[in-house]
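job 3f2a | input accepted
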Amino acid sequence: MSNKSESLRLLVVDESPAIAEALTNQLKSLGVASRLQVLDDKEELEKALRHVWDIILFIAGYDIAYEDVLRLIQSNGQDLPLILLLNDLKAFDPNTSEDPSAPVLKAYSAGAVDVLPINRPLQLSHCVRRELSNLEHRRSKRNAEMMLGDAERRSQLLLKNSRTAVSYIDEGVHIYANESYLELFGYESIDELMGMPVIDLVDSKDLQEFKEFIKTYSKTGRNEADFNFSGIRADKSRFEAMLQLAPASFEGEPCIQVIIQHQAVADTSHLEAQLAAVERLDALTNLGNRRALEDDLESTRDAAIKSKQQHALLFTSIDNIGQINASAGLAGSDATVIKISETLKAQFSGAHTYRFGDSTFATLVTNTSSESISKIAQKTTEQIAKTLISVGARTVQTTVSIGIAMIGETSPSSEEILSRAFNAADKVKIQNQGLGNGINLYNPAENATESDQALRELLEDALEKGTFKLMFQSVYDTNNEAAPLFEVYARLPLANGETMMPEQFMPVAHRFGMESRLDRWILLNACKRLKSQQATHPNTRLLINLSADSLQDTSLPVLVGKLATAISKGDNKPLTLQFNENDAISYLELARSNIQQFHENGCQVAINNFGASLNAMSLLDHLKVDLVKIDKSFVQDLGNEENFQAVKKLTSEIIRHQSQVLIAYIETPVAMSKAWSIGARYLQGYYLQMPSEDMVFDS
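job 3f2a | predicted structure (699 res):
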């Protein structure tokens, strides 16, 4: 795979495509799409290896062994990892003399990257992902080395033909100098300078200061300033020059690069630096201009990601600049712009303020919070509204609208940050009937439905501040009304007072790797609520939905064990963890291990959306679960006799596997009557009770 967007190029040596197809489906469920070719003989393999592949999987060949494949890969000079699958890979048995590790060691010695049993698809999927990652790193390293080699060759060519005098020194003596350096000091060839100390080219009056300059550089590894000195040519004549040092390497060894400019050239460079600085300044206000803002905003965003500190971008718009221009002319507009720029610089003294447009400004504030910067911005608008601006004999007044966009670890691109601040300022005028004179803080909660990035930031904020809302829906236990059971749901509050459902925000949480953190928040806070509920209803139980990430999390059983211990009363098991059927099938081995530990730690396990896959019942042969919630597609129309009989049959089969059945989505009296007669232990639905913020059970 050359980049993240391409699919895995998988070459499989096998006599049957069945295993390869199963693997493709497994990888797809893990988010890795693959392009597959299956072959079984040497001739086909030789043709296939003319193309680019990422991984080769060897199962069984018609006329070729895996050793032959490895030799062919090595002779072609290809970087192609081979994973060997064995049908008879056994565990070590101390009662036999046969060493089961022999075929594994043989395969590793031949060059295989891994040897796995053929009946472990999940383990194979993880191995493929690992080797794919390793392959990407090796390819990136080779590409980087090639680019470095090209860059070094170009650098040597540029150095040789450069008009700037450059040399390399090691331990204070010359090891290389370009033509311009030789010409500047009056030497004919590099041989004359080789081994000569650099101090021999410095006038005696500057010698002590130069030694200190070199000493400081050796300690700090950087130049604090340029060094101005008098140089000595081969004919003992002198000239004024400026010297700079920089770390470098020559023929693979570290050294110091010396750049010397004749004073006339140095003066020109100084002028060029001044010109570059002027290009970033606004002539009227002496503030940075839009170009300067864009550069600094990019670096500020990068710093926020690295340091995990919060910064802010403020966009300030003068509200009535058109009226001022009409009444006081260009002089009035300029005077207003200058006065606003002075006020912004004074109010945000530790920040950088820029003139973004004719009547707009931007301010970058580092290491701040939304509360702190909002207070300063509000104070600024109030002060500007009271300010009198003199234009000759006339006096004008203005107001400003300030939009604020916070910059943090999860912030989007600098262009999007600027757009957020601009839109926030524009919203001030909308809120104040076009008058402006206020501030507005960009709130991801107001834009969560329109932007995945905004929703991600809202999720991060909700996790940090604990603003998710937990809802509880009762599950009627036909065997035991004295132990009420509630299913837990999470809702995400939005700025408009509405709440977002899990099916809307969980895909974004999955995309940004936040599912596990969200699961733990729900677990911890639901158990806190349960602990409070137990004071009056000690037998209350919870059914908590968790994601695929939590099903794979080997550290979760430890946390669950601690929570179960804290909320358990005697033999009561108040906590049931519920996982999706498809996730349990995809991660069967991990699911089996974790579910066993959940049980050992005093917790029950449920499967949700059961029956959605073709091999649903076989799942219960592998996993011991306490509760099964039948998929919605089965129970939507229980009034239909065919559907009713199908659910009744499914319920009987589940009970035969020693699991209890939950029929949910009961929304009508007919559905309630039918569900009751099926024989399921648990019933749930809007007809029985709606979700509530409190654990309220209506029998």
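job 3f2a | Confidence is low (pLDDT under 50) at residues 91-97.
job 3f2a | closed
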